[in-house]
Amino acid sequence: MKFLSGLKSSLFATTSDVLFSEKRLEHLVQGLKKGDGLNTEITVEIEQLSLAERWMLLQHVLNETKRVAFNYLHIPKTGGTSLGETLANDKHVDIVSVDALPVVFARQISRLYNTTQLPVMVRAHHSLQFSALLIAKGLFTTSFLTYRNPIDIHVSNINMIIRRLVAYEAGEVLTEPEIQFCREWLSKLTTGFADTEQFAVKLANSDAYLQAMGNIYARNLNTANWQKLVKQKSLLVLDTSDIDRVFNRVFKYEKVPLRKNVSHDKWLTVDCLTPEVKQRLQSKDVKVVDFLNRHLSDADEFCIRLEDVCNKARLQNV
């Protein structure tokens, strides 16, 4: 487990999290190798991991298994759920969601030891802080994010929040992550919840929303070298409008899959937001967004990069 020594002087060691001991990591890895991703003891240990430790575990497993992996920096409401879940469900990739529930993360990591050599798609609603070192080390064949106008992100996200809260209060069947999501947002609301446009506008202008989601790109691209990674094409930027081309060209879908996690009810539209609210939501994003727009990847070149990842994974099976 010599890889730990290199990490202890790295980015991960700058956090306040307690890092792995060799013995603890070895125990976890042995359990995961046996396919014990659903073992209660292993799941409890996964639950106790910090975010940094989850990424360290992933790095070790990818190094040990030699799996071909690509990394997706999942900015909320930019098509990542549709892309990741569709490809995983249709057996195009083995997915690892680093921010998933412990039992899900454990099962996904365990699969890397016990499945065929599909390409591995790593994703998380975690900032670039956590994956930047792994990108720099060349652990991922390709890394990318999908870009969408930030105000469109906020409008979509607020409609999604309200849709989930409506379902939660109506007693509809929700997944455990969705239930946790609703409880967290209800605890943040100072004025109570209402199924109205007026509430949606208030939520967009609230301190709670700004703290949780404001300046969405600046908070996710929070490392000093992110621009360098983009310029070097170590981190590609794909416009969300090009995701359909990825489905069609790289993964051979004749019909583009339906979008997931989308609210078709529109409590909020862009026109509902005043210029002051828009500025508040993206005050630190203006320069970041300008840079990203100037470095958007050519869709065809991006598809070629991702096709190379898939071909490399297939060659491991030969």
Structure in words:
With 318 residues, this protein is α/β, with parallel strands linked by helices. It has a domain at 152-215 and 259-283. It is built from 17 helices and 5 strands. It has a 5-stranded parallel sheet, with helices on both faces. α14 crosses α17 (299-315). It is globular, with a radius of gyration of 20 Å. The two termini are 29 Å apart.
* Helix segment tally: 17
Widest sheet: strand ordering: 2-3-1-4-5
Helix fraction by DSSP (H/I, runs of at least 4):
40-55%
Contiguous low-pLDDT stretches (5 residues minimum) are: 1-18
Q: Specify the biggest β-sheet.
A: 5 strands, parallel
H/E element order: HHHHEHEHEHEHHHHHHEHHHH
| Radius of gyration, taken over Cα atoms and rounded to an integer in Å | 20 Å
Q: Report how far apart the termini are.
A: 29 Å
Structural class: alpha/beta
Which percent range describes the beta-strand content? Answer: 5-15%
Please report the total strand number as a whole number: 5
Shape: globular
Mean pLDDT: 90
Explain the layout of strands and helices:
Layout (H helix, E strand, L loop, with lengths): L2 H5 L14 H12 L6 H8 L3 H15 L3 E5 L6 H10 L4 E4 L4 H13 L5 E5 L3 H9 L5 E6 L2 H20 L6 H13 L8 H8 L2 H7 L2 H5 L5 H6 L4 E4 L3 H8 L24 H7 L4 H9 L4 H17 L3
Parallel strand pairs: 1-3, 1-4, 2-3, 4-5
Helix pairs in contact: 3-6, 8-9, 14-17
Name its key features.
five-stranded parallel sheet; alpha/beta; 318 residues
Short description:
The protein is of the alpha/beta class.
